[in-house]
Design brief:
The protein is 43% helix and 28% strand. The protein is of the alpha+beta class. The chain has 2 domains: 62 residues, no CATH class; 91 residues, no CATH class. Helix 1 packs across helix 2. The chain is extended, with a radius of gyration of 21 Å.
Length: 165
Amino acid sequence: MQMFDHVLQMWELALQGDRQGIWFWAAVYVFLIGGYSVLFQLRIRRWPSTKGHLKHLGLDKFGAAIILSDQDYRSDALYSYQIAGKTYQGKRISPWVIIASHNAQFVLKKQLSKVQTFPDGRVKIYYNPANPGKSWLILPSQFGVFATILISILPAFSYWLEFYG
């Protein structure tokens, strides 16, 4: 009952625009979204793989910029693969969608370097067994899952330190 009272109190504080109430609900939101993301990443890590044909893999301009250093980029891919005799096309590279500035393109190039290629030119593709049309070229790493967990709990921890620590 005490926890329920605290949640109600935080709701009232947030409605009044109080910093503690807003911080509390922001921390709850980040924790819930982060928790969902962790479960999603862990589920993807169990997906089976197949070999497919890479049609395109590179960087694509994101948005418009007049000055080159202001230009943003994202990774871009197109590949095809077969599951149970049916051909699918995919464009997802990783669950981690990264947008990088012109000067930080190396981050995207590092991500693209993790795509597994075989001597015959094909690539490894991870697909959802329940929906084979959904696929990725790169599985979430253990580090990525850990980073998501950390990002999910940091706002709650900082809230606790600020108001109860």
